[in-house]
Design goal:
elongated; mainly alpha; 127 residues
Length: 127
Amino acid sequence: MDNYTNLSEADKKIMDIIWEMGEVDNSDIMTALDGFRDWSRHTVKTYLRRLNEKGLVGIRQINARKNVYYPIISKKDYMVDETSVYLKDHFKSLTHMVAGLLEREKISDEELDNLQQLIEEHKSKGK
């Protein structure tokens, strides 16, 4: 989990592209980044190498000049890890966080029912 923290906006943008497209090459990412950043191919490759070192992206070599990049961790798993880190850094417990949200946010009865159902399902699984 520690490797996934502190991703820059650019790292997250590249990961979003990879999560959306599945397997991509450098040119796919360059096309998807059009209008977001004006980067060289080398810059994109540097970000991809760093994401690989952090355990987020795998690399499959097609030939001497072309690699394909794919996600190692799902977006859902990444978001769960990020949420856990945020929770630990900013709140004493999940209960404190939820209590704060309940006091400040308009939460519909439907959302509360859905949360209660999730809690009951979690309890029944014995977790």
